[in-house]
Write a structure and sequence with these properties.
Helices cover 11% and strands 33% of the residues. The protein is mainly β. The strands form nine sheets. The protein has a five-stranded antiparallel sheet with strand order 2-11-12-13-14, with no helix packed on it.
Length: 418
């Protein structure tokens, strides 16, 4: 390792520690949001996610949630099922529980009334359920990491982990019981560890599993929520809603990036105790997909280029397409979120309509199927041509760093060229 790279790695670790502590801040009010006490390996969960086209299926309560010790207070107790990870590898990230405070009462404004709310390139987490489309600006999530919300009548937790560069949303119900999630203040494999407020069990953000506590072994239902540029969201969902940064109930320097310089493959992940898979740099950006039991990570370079690009792939025995479109800034590079380099927006879709397989090419800033010549948007909606009005099924994916994807999907393939 050369001297410059060594300096960059240690500088990245020092900066990361400072930024995690900085994220704690002070709410507008002085109310204490700390949780109260409640009465091995990280392999793939194999759970198939919901699409954004319909609400996840409602599941009736099958059990009363157990009572017992809080995993925020102790990692080992006779009442706990066997942990899914070594509890010793769940380590403090600096802040106390909810020291990085979730937003539990989000306020929204209409997109049509807030077209200039954000710079066009700023990233947002996009969630659509039964026609209810909402944008959660990363400028807010980078300081709060969790928003507990209800979208399309579905209770959800929208989560974002800056350290592993990933956004994941889940139905916030456990065994049919609705709950909310908070930040535990701990990390596993340099990724956010959440806790549910019903039992205070610990859950890994990256795959939605309860790993320690009364609910160890339970699995949350994921809902696809890709990162899009604000320009892409406001154009695609003009009747949607956007989380209002001026009504979070907290005082933060929204728009600034406390993780400046973190999106750099020459630096190490913060507090990562494992050995990174050496097939790629730890913080190589990848598009991670698990489909029909098969996992693959596509380097961002393999699926991007020009103003837009369509990459036709086969995974899990089915044809998929990865749409990439320029225009989204990385939130984790510049001191201002909007100033990050262009990493583009990604969607992953099942490449078929009514049982007919399709292949795609990019034309200008849109996508065209080679079978009918219909024109498609990034979200998988056909807006022109014989298939106008059709929607491709969205497949859940993660825009993330390689070290995180390879940790949770150790058998993954890595595709570095198209």
């Amino acid at each position: 390792m050369n001297t410059r790279k060594t300096i960059l790695r240690f500088a990245g670790l020092g900066a990361a520690f400072a930024l995690v502590v900085a994220a704690c801040g002070t709410p507008d009010d002085a109310e204490d949001d700390a949780p109260t006490s409640s009465t091995t390996d990280a392999a793939s969960s194999g759970v198939e996610p919901s699409t954004t086209a319909r609400a996840p299926e409602v599941t009736a309560a099958v059990d009363v949630l157990p009572e017992g010790p809080s995993a925020l207070q102790t990692r080992v107790a006779d009442e706990f099922p066997d942990p899914l990870v070594d509890p010793a590898e769940i380590i403090s990230g600096g802040p106390p529980p909810d020291g990085i405070p979730p937003i539990d009462d989000p306020s929204f404004v209409n997109v049509a009334d807030a077209l200039d709310l954000l710079p066009a390139a700023e990233p947002v987490v996009a969630l659509e359920i039964d026609g209810d489309a909402r944008a959660y600006p990363v400028r807010v999530l980078i300081w709060h990491e969790i928003v507990n919300d209800t979208v399309g009548d579905v209770p959800v937790s929208v989560t974002y982990c800056p350290l592993c560069n990933s956004a994941v949303s889940y139905r916030r119900e456990v065994r049919g019981v609705e709950t909310t999630f908070g930040t535990s203040g701990s990390l596993f494999a340099s990724a956010l560890v959440m806790y549910d407020r019903a039992t205070e069990s610990l859950w890994t953000h990256f795959d939605g599993r309860a790993v320690v506590g009364l609910l160890a072994g339970d699995q949350l239902e994921p809902i696809a929520s890709p990162l899009l540029s604000w320009e892409e969201f406001r154009t695609t969902y003009p009747d949607g809603l956007v989380l209002d940064p001026d009504a979070t109930g907290f005082t933060r320097n929204y728009g600034s990036n406390p993780y400046r310089g973190y999106d750099d493959p020459n630096t190490d992940p913060f507090l990562f105790l494992g050995v990174p898979d050496d097939r790629a740099e730890a913080k190589q950006r990848v598009v991670g997909i698990t489909h029909n039991g098969e996992a693959a990570a596509y380097s961002i370079e393999a699926v991007s280029g020009g103003g837009a690009r369509a990459t036709n792939v086969e995974l899990g025995g089915e044809g998929l397409v990865i749409f990439w479109k320029a225009g989204q800034a990385t939130a984790l590079e510049s001191s201002e979120i909007a100033g990050g380099r262009d990493v583009g927006s990604v969607s992953v879709l099942r490449a078929e309509v009514d049982g007919e397989a399709l292949t795609f090419v990019a034309q200008d800033d849109a996508f065209v199927d080679e079978q009918t010549g219909s024109r498609w948007l990034l979200n998988g909606e056909a807006v022109d041509g014989p298939l106008a009005g059709s929607r491709l099924e969205r497949i859940n994916h993660l825009d993330t760093f390689w070290f995180a994807w390879a940790t949770y999907q150790p058998g993954t393939a890595l595709i570095e060229t198209a």
